[in-house]
Amino acid sequence: MQFYNFMTVVAAHTSKPVIYEELANAAGISAPTAKKWLSILVSSHIIALIQPYYNNALKRVVKMPLLHFLDTGLAAWLLKWGTPEALEKGALSGAIFESYVFSEIYKSYLNTGKEPPVYYYRDKDQKEIDLLIYQNGVLSPVEIKKAASPGKNAVKNFHVLDPVRMANTADAANMADNAKTADSAKTFGGLDALKAEIGNGSVVCLAADLLPIDEKNWYVPVWLI
């Protein structure tokens, strides 16, 4: 029964950063037990723990994993939302929607035998990006909004990745200068430059159609994922 109660607590914390003491207190268990039981849910593919994205260009990142319940139907059942209408009116409907979108993207990689290249971003100034997809050297930001018309403010936090873009530009310039030197091959090979180009951004939402927000970002209807 204790483990069942713990699962209910975890469902109520979907799309939130993991704080073991908080989960433990809510479930009436110890923090080490909460950590052990959470690892069981991860290995059972009931939840996923998503690591934060950070590099040397991003200095204020909060380095806690983010929790997502992969079976949002099970999460709703545990939280006693027995109908779509009850879920729609529930206090966690936005969090459940976010976890649903995340799980569909996450499982699309697992189903093709790939490790999901997914991260999230949160810093000490409370700026967040719900999902970052990093593949082939490109970092693509994704916001998830349970709204048909989220507005341009939905991408306002994408600018936190500007230091990565600027660092890449500076590294590229340095490599060009170093290429002129006699030991350019050694210098070029030792750089951690150009690890992440910033790609197009997306806002996954309840929009009816795929629509541009600006030259770099798009509204993506949830049915497309």
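^ that was protein a. below is b, sequence first then the tokens
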Amino acid sequence: MLTSYTDEDAVISSMLAGASGYLLKHLSRPELLRSIRLVASGQTLIDANATQQALDRISQTPGWELTEREREVLTLIARGYTNKQIADALTVTEKTARNHVSHILEKLGLSRRSEAAVFAVENKLVQRREKQKE
């Protein structure tokens, strides 16, 4: 992607669309040719300023530091699951479920499961539960 846009939305959108490079138009011809060759060889190349803006935005997103598995566990916590129920739902041991809960609380700077549930709901980190048809 060769562009004059440095905003994080453009960077994130282009990366999600599959771009291997994101460069700003202010490059000199030799820099541009070098960059094209790097990307053509399979490397990823993103303008440092654009990258920093995108990383700043991502780091301000609530819960960004959670892994995909931790997000799953957080969803179950928000639904009121116990460690045993989380373990059963994810087919892991209860100790593993307890460890996931501890890591979530630590990463979010919280001390209670109830705080994690509130955090998840307030920051829309959990999907709404579909009403079950009988």
